[in-house]
Design brief:
- The complex is a heterodimer.
- Chain A is mostly beta strands.
- In chain B, the strands form 2 sheets. In chain B, strands 2, 4, 5, 9, 10 and 11 form a 6-stranded mixed sheet that branches. In chain B, strands 1-3-8-7-6 form a 5-stranded antiparallel sheet, with no helix packed on it.
- Chain B is globular.
- Classes of the chains: A mainly beta, B mainly beta.
- Chains A and B meet through strand 5, strand 6 and strand 10 of A and strand 4, strand 5, strand 9 and strand 10 of B.
């Protein structure tokens, strides 16, 4: 158990809908990262927040947004969902704002299925 | 787009065999390299964080080396056990963006 929690574990929804994925980092970690793992791609970095502020942005679609709250939990909002958004979404946390020098601790993931 | 390649894509070995695989990454603007172990139906688990050229890290039977000048890292497993079966991922972090770019992983299956 990494100490990172994600809810829900599974989510099935229809195209065009909007969903929110939630992540709570390990106690004391200030950074949260969001990743997407789809069948035909490797693990893709989406976005990083550090202590409430956006720190780095990867290949995140404009239909997707995220935020980190004062209690450090984070939410990833996916809207106007398409079939291709079906994937496993991970969040990870680390103590610092720079992703390089510290390990990231991954949550169990949220499996999103868009039908 | 940064190119992070892992080879081989998959590997089958017998229990007790030693094995190694490669992560290749851009040799410029290096900041750090991470290795992760990802078991089926679980989430990636950090193995090593490597930051200096020539770094060697070890955790039990697993070790890793880093060559930032030529852009590669090796992961070694000595005396493989069935419980080592997993996908091993590397992630390159560049000094410009600090965004991790993951390789596709090496899938290791250790047969008893």
């Amino acid at each position: 158990d990494s100490g990172v929690t994600q809810t829900p574990k599974h989510l099935i929804t229809a195209t065009g809908q909007r969903v929110t994925l939630r992540c709570s980092p390990r106690s004391g970690d200030l950074s949260v990262y969001w990743y997407q793992q789809s069948l035909d791609q490797g693990l893709q970095f989406l976005i990083q927040y550090y202590n409430g502020e956006e720190r780095a942005k990867g290949n995140i679609l404009e239909r997707f947004s995220a935020q980190q709250f004062p209690d450090l939990h984070s939410e990833l909002n996916l809207s106007s969902l398409e079939l291709g958004d079906s994937a496993l979404y991970f969040c990870a946390s680390s103590p610092t704002g720079t992703s390089g020098t510290y390990e990231q601790y991954f949550g169990p993931g949220t499996r999103l299925t868009v039908t | 787009i940064l190119n992070v390649e892992q080879s081989p894509q998959s590997l089958h070995v017998q229990e007790g065999d030693s094995t190694n695989f490669t992560c290749s990454f851009p040799s410029s603007n290096f900041y750090a390299l991470h290795w992760y172990r990802w078991e089926t139906a679980k989430s990636p688990e950090a193995l090593f964080v490597m930051t200096l050229n020539g770094d060697e890290k070890k955790k039990g039977r697993i070790s890793a080396t880093l060559n930032t000048k030529e852009g590669y890292s090796y992961l070694y497993i000595k005396g493989s056990q069935p419980e080592d079966s997993a996908t091993y991922l590397c992630a390159f972090i560049s000094g410009g963006s600090y965004i991790p770019t993951f390789g596709r992983g090496t899938s290791l299956i250790v047969h008893p």
